[in-house]
């Protein structure tokens, strides 16, 4: 599958249009449907229990249920999977391996944290996921190395998702690190800085969440 799966949540949105192609899949999650106009995309699927929609949005959804019922999945309010995770599972079932989540941060902190866990869920399913907004992005590393564009400007922070992450290396950034062990109870990896070189971040054993904040 060459396309990307774009998943639009109901959190904060700080960007404009998305450039999607015919190979991509666009999923609006619950109240994220209201962002589709801002992003200039038409969702291929609308999924959720729709508990975060306003009365006006619910009325619009009822019209869509009549016009395109095959593109709407209504989930029960009481369930184990979050609406976001249900959307990601649908994308995986369709064969997608590259996920871009918009509107997945801000608002309720528990929703943001759950979406970070969703990034690890995707990683464990041999897929990659990115929480994206106009000011930065987040992704998860698991026993791997990533190379970051030399043109990036801003700060990068790393946090261990498990108890420890071993063999952490940071190259070509202001604060280099070699063979470091990070724990999840000490935020030593915050606010590193890009220096105009291709940065390389790696972890030999464990999981890290990488947060990049762009320069305003």
Measured by DSSP, the beta-strand proportion falls in 35-45%
Measured distance between first and last alpha carbons: 35 Å
Please give the number of β-strands.
Answer: 14
Overall mean pLDDT: 92
What's the main sheet like? 10 strands, mixed
Class computed from helices, strands and strand pairing: alpha/beta
Roughly how many Å is the radius of gyration?
18 Å
Please bin the fraction of helical residues. Answer: 10-25%
Biggest sheet, spatial arrangement of strands: 4-3-2-1-5-6-7-14-9-12
Q: Total number of helical segments? A: 4
Q: Low-confidence spans: pLDDT under 50, at least 5 residues?
A: none
| Tertiary shape | elongated
List strands and helices in order, with pairings.
Layout: E1 5-8, E2 25-29, H1 36-39, E3 45-48, H2 55-67, E4 72-74, H3 83-93, E5 98-102, H4 109-124, E6 128-133, E7 136-142, E8 145-148, E9 154-160, E10 164-171, E11 177-183, E12 192-193, E13 199-205, E14 207-214
Parallel strand pairs: 1-2, 1-5, 2-3, 3-4, 5-6
Antiparallel strand pairs: 6-7, 7-14, 8-13, 9-12, 9-14, 10-11, 10-13
């Amino acid at each position: 599958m060459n396309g990307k799966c774009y998943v639009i949540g109901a959190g904060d949105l700080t960007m404009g249009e998305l450039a999607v192609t015919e190979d991509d899949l666009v999923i609006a999650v619950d109240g994220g449907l209201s962002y589709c106009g801002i992003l200039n995309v038409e969702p291929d699927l609308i999924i959720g229990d729709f508990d975060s929609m306003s009365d006006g949005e619910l009325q619009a959804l009822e019209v869509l249920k009549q016009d395109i019922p095959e593109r709407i999945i209504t989930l029960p309010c009481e369930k184990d999977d979050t609406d976001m995770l249900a959307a990601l599972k649908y994308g995986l079932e369709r064969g997608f391996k590259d996920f871009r989540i918009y509107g997945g941060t801000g608002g309720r902190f528990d929703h943001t944290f759950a979406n970070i866990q969703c990034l690890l869920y995707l990683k464990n399913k041999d897929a990659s996921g990115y929480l994206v907004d106009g000011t930065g992005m987040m992704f998860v590393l698991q026993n791997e190395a990533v190379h970051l564009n030399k043109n990036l400007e801003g700060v990068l922070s790393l946090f261990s998702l498990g108890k420890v992450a071993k063999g952490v290396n940071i190259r070509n950034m202001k604060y280099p690190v070699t063979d470091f062990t990070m724990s999840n109870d000490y935020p030593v990896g915050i606010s590193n800085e890009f220096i105009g070189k291709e940065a390389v971040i790696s972890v030999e054993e464990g999981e890290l969440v990488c947060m990049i904040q762009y320069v305003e």
